[in-house]
Specification:
The structure holds 3 protein chains of 3 kinds. Chain A contains 20 helices and 10 strands. By secondary structure, chain A is of the alpha+beta class. In chain A, a hairpin with a 3-residue loop joins strand 8 and strand 9. Among the domains of chain B are: 63 residues, Helicase, Ruva Protein, domain 3 (Orthogonal Bundle), CATH 1.10.8.640; 33 residues. Chain B contains 6 helices and no strands. Classes of the chains: A alpha+beta, B mainly alpha, C mainly alpha. Chains in contact: A-B, A-C, B-C.
């Protein structure tokens, strides 16, 4: 079975080479048969990689330790379903996962763009298959997960115990998928450039579609990761500004900028050059992310073990960036704007400001992440750049962003008069002051927290204002409230879907603000029978239950908890110690409500019966996780395509082209 | 000034109501946990600013490591013993070097770390301003767009107006 | 057994890849509409003009746009729509009919949105 998998990988590699060469050749020579052949070749890579994946998972499930990767990442004690997690938990396996996941996603993308962008598609195909080719080459020549060991060990080393949690079934796959999915809008954009068809916004619809798909996957990956860190890692936090986390955040920031500015291009034919640069930047950041992930130069909790791999990714990233920019410069002339900026007070201008802010945050994040290397090189002192730095620096910038998010939708396209701008800003400004005032009165005095809540309030008011007014308007016509609201949503899906996403982001922002500023924690020493309090919570330590397994020792504590007078029941925080890995995995017990989370986690259990526990109260964390489904829903709403009433469609492109049509006077053509 | 004549319509009231609701919830949940001791609070924030030297990038507050636990105890002892925050940090820096602090120092090379973000913001603002001004000045690139001759344009607008599309008063033309 | 399976793994993709080259079905099917053609460009411009008109209606009903801004935006988008029609060499009657339908559609949007506040 393993050998079959290995052959599949070789076959996939050869096929990828063929597809790249023939795809580009077909595009250049306008050979539709060549292109069709390349396309089918690309689709065929999918079953081949699925076979290889199946071979690897089969090896895991059957404890085939003759395969080096299986021996490194699992053991007999591992529960069988974790074979899926073990598959991508190591370097080589994760590369195979990325290759197979990307080939599937890219095939779907290819199918769609072949129909919508028939003359751009061959070049986009070429780019996509080069991306795939890179991964397959690394797998085949550097990190083959199906490589065999000369001597079969009796048992494997086992999977990292921190990975034994059901969150690990979804977070890493999503995260890795998100990073590589940035290649999709990139391929469409660069394919258009290569095809010489970037200048008339042909690729914008597809660029927006795949950009949003990629953005969605990246966002969900980040949220899942935060949720997993919070519920499983037992330190009560959800984001540590760890280098690997940062490397996933940066492409997300660039992609968020992109999905907004692509709207301007669609609407006005502006930002043509900028969007190209932006999508190239996003992909570069995604590649940088993969580099940092694979044992880059900055130490991280998340890194894969091997460190030599990283430099290849860095080199390829540099090469991709260089080549992309060369192509951009060559095709620069085709990218002149169609529209003109009519006013500095317009949605276009606001989008540009927002883009700049997103990229600034990405840059600052990158700066903080690589600063240790910088300080080492320049001054020979290594400095650490951790949470305090990023919170202080990125916090205000993100607040500015949320403010912009609240205000920009109120600006019309093209032009707003100063008078209408002032009128529009008066209400949010008044609201911000009002909220700040109320907050201060109610005892929230920390300045950044107050500012943050006020600005979130502004953003919410912007969205609510549109919803309420829009619904009221329709209601006047005689529609029943809920129906009016739904019709409003449905008639303007991209806009209102976007608002739903904004609301989700505000929920996230509120949760982050509240839990960052108003979290309380306390470490307490307790013996069985002791009772402690934190805030309104009272918890009694009943005892600890020890259970010994072949690879670990589990100590589960039992608590009875009250919130004021209300009895909350039992909570069971536990700690598992893995002697082989010398890791202790603690799992907190969480009592969650929309207002706050009460969080108990064990630190240590001593022989004399005493134990140290940490109790935390984290306000409003629930809002962060609740925002995720809302965000997904909003994105999907925004993605549903618009159906134009038949009678006002031009219907020009419904029919295939005849020679006469091709010879029509080119009234609206730019100078090529 | 007509700006002052803002009609407070029903929708505004509703919006304000909604936001107040959210805010009240915020206030209640943030107000409650004010009850840990000053010492505990200091301990926590100190712990969050010191790195565990053997764990990659984790603070001693975060890390489960034995050394981290040991360091947390030292911090607590020193706080109980009356040392100030900066003295405690100095203590660790002496033993492990400046790398043990989770944010760069504000002197020497560390200062560079702190300066770059605000400078970046300044540059970003200038860049956006310049870009906007340049974009505004630039004439429409597609001259062919204006190939509708004057007479054609008049004919079209007359067409549209005849169909009573614009209503009573045709608005002023774009200058 | 292994050899047999490996041969299958290699043969099937090879066949799949060679088939379009040999059967030439792709080059014999009608040309798809070029995404850079005049027609496609006109469609895009038309869509964006209509989007602009509908969004102007919406913004006005929401109160984000005052009458002057609304009127200006409407004119701008109507002009863009007119340009597209001009480039299409339609007959006068066809043009008028299409523009009328556009106006009906926009008026419908306006009514649905509840009209101006």
């Amino acid at each position: 079975m393993v050998e079959i998998g290995q052959i599949s990988i070789v076959a996939a590699f050869i096929l990828a080479v063929y597809v790249t060469v023939v795809g580009f050749a077909g595009g250049i020579l306008n050979g539709r048969d060549l292109v069709a052949s390349a396309r089918w070749g690309f689709y065929s890579v999918v079953p081949l990689l699925l076979i290889a994946t199946a071979a690897l998972i089969y090896a895991f499930v059957n404890n085939d330790f003759s395969v080096a990767y299986v021996a490194e990442n699992s053991n007999r004690a591992m529960p069988r379903i974790y074979a899926w997690v073990a598959f991508y938990s190591g370097n080589a396996g994760s590369l195979l996962y990325i290759a197979v996941a990307f080939s599937i996603m890219a095939s779907i993308c290819l199918k769609v763009i072949t129909k919508k962008l028939p003359y751009t598609a061959p070049y986009a195909l070429g780019v996509m298959s080069m991306v795939l080719l890179f991964f397959l080459a690394v797998i085949l020549f550097l990190a083959n997960p199906l490589e065999k060991l000369p001597v079969t060990p009796a048992d494997g080393q086992g999977i990292n115990p921190l990975l034994i949690h059901f969150g690990m079934f979804i977070h890493p796959p999503f995260q890795m998928l998100g990073l590589i999915s940035v290649a999709l809008p990139y391929s469409v954009a660069v394919g258009a450039l290569l095809a010489g068809r970037g200048g008339r916004d042909e690729w914008v619809d597809q660029g927006r579609l795949w950009g949003m798909v990629s953005w969605l996957i990246l966002t969900v990956g980040l949220l899942l990761g935060s949720w997993w860190a919070y519920t499983i890692l037992g330190w009560g936090g959800y984001w540590a500004w760890d280098p690997v986390e940062n490397s996933a955040l940066m492409p997300w920031l660039a992609m968020t900028a992109f999905v907004h500015s692509i709207m301007v291009q669609k609407r006005r034919g502006m930002f043509r050059m900028w969007n190209m640069v932006l999508v190239i930047t996003s992909f570069t950041m995604a590649q940088l992310g993969m580099f940092i992930n694979r044992g880059g130069p900055v130490p991280s909790v998340h890194s894969f073990a091997e460190s030599t791999m990283g430099w290849i990714f860095l080199a390829v990233m540099g090469l991709t960036l260089f080549v992309s920019l060369v192509i951009f410069v060559v095709r620069y002339d085709t990218l002149k704007s169609r529209g003109r900026l009519e006013s500095l007070i317009s949605r276009e201008a606001a989008f540009l400001a927002q883009n700049a802010l997103f990229l600034l945050i990405a840059f600052v994040t990158l700066w903080g992440t690589v600063f240790p290397i910088f300080s080492e090189a320049v001054d020979e002192t290594t400095m650490t750049v951790g949470q305090p730095f990023f919170n202080k620096v990125n916090g205000p910038l993100m607040l500015l962003l949320i403010f912009l998010m609240g205000v920009a939708p109120l600006l019309p396209w093209r032009r707003a008069t100063v008078r209408s701008l002032a009128r529009m800003l008066m209400i949010p400004a008044a609201l911000a002051l009002g909220i700040a005032g109320v907050a201060l009165l109610l005892g929230i005095t920390r300045p950044w927290a107050v500012a943050s809540f006020a600005i979130c309030g502004v953003a919410v008011s912007g969205v609510m204002q549109e919803w309420v007014r829009g619904t009221l308007s329709r209601h006047k016509r005689g529609e029943w409230w809920p129906k009016a609201f739904l019709n409003l949503l449905n008639a303007n899906r991209p806009r209102y879907g976007g608002y739903i996403v904004h609301l989700a982001i505000i929920m996230l922002g509120v949760g982050i603000t509240a839990s960052s500023f108003y979290s309380v924690q306390r470490d307490v020493v307790m013996k069985p029978g002791d009772t402690e309090t934190l805030g309104k919570y009272t918890f009694t330590y009943i005892g600890v239950n020890e259970e010994s397994f072949t690879d670990r020792l589990e100590e589960t504590a039992e608590f009875e908890v009250w919130a004021g007078n209300k009895y909350l029941g039992y909570m069971y925080p536990y700690r598992a110690f893995y002697p082989e890995f010398r890791i202790a995995a603690t799992r907190g017990a969480i009592n969650s409500s929309p207002m706050e989370d009460f969080y108990l986690v064990p630190s240590e259990f001593n022989e004399n019966g005493q134990a140290v526990f940490r109790a935390l109260i984290n306000p409003m964390v629930w809002w962060m996780w609740a925002s995720c489904p809302i965000l997904v829903f909003g994105t999907l709403v925004a993605l549903i395509p618009r159906r134009r009433a038949k009678n006002i469609q031009l219907g020009l492109t419904r029919f295939t082209v005849s020679n006469a049509d091709q010879n029509r006077s080119a009234m609206l053509r730019t100078k090529d | 000034m007509s700006i002052i004549k803002i009609a407070v319509s029903r929708s505004h009231v509703l919006a304000i109501l909604l936001i107040s609701l959210v805010l009240i919830q915020l206030a209640v949940s943030c107000k409650a946990p004010a009850e840990i001791s000053e010492l505990d609070s200091r301990t926590n924030s100190l712990n969050k600013s010191i790195m565990c030297p053997v764990c990659p990038g984790e603070s001693i507050d975060q890390s489960q490591n034995e050394l981290a636990g040991h360091m947390r105890r030292i911090v607590r002892e020193q706080i109980d013993g009356g040392k100030t925050d900066s003295q405690i940090r100095e203590y660790f820096v002496e033993r492990y070097g400046p790398v043990v602090l989770l944010e760069p120092s504000t002197s020497g090379i560390g200062l560079v770390a702190w300066i770059v973000p605000p400078v970046g913001l300044l540059i970003a603002i200038c860049a956006v301003a310049i870009a906007l001004i340049v974009m505004k000045r630039r004439r429409r690139e597609n001259v062919p767009d204006d190939t509708l001759s004057y007479s054609d344009r008049e004919r079209y607008f007359k067409l549209l107006e005849e169909k009573e599309i614009f209503g009573d008063d045709p608005p002023g033309r774009e200058t | 057994m292994l050899v047999f399976v490996s041969i299958i793994i290699c043969i099937i993709p090879a066949v799949v890849v060679l088939y379009p080259l040999l059967s030439k079905i792709a080059s014999q099917s009608p040309f798809p509409e070029d995404e850079s053609s005049l027609n496609a460009d006109l469609e895009r411009r038309w869509e964006s003009a209509l989007d602009g008109l509908q969004s102007a209606e919406l913004e006005r009903s929401l109160g984000n746009l005052d009458e002057e801004g609304y009127g200006w935006l409407r004119e701008v988008h109507m002009y863009e729509a007119a340009l597209v029609l001009k480039a299409m060499d339609l007959s006068k009657a066809e043009e008028i009919s299409l523009m009328e339908r556009v106006n009906d559609e926009i008026a419908r949007t306006r009514i649905e949105s509840g009209g101006a506040e």
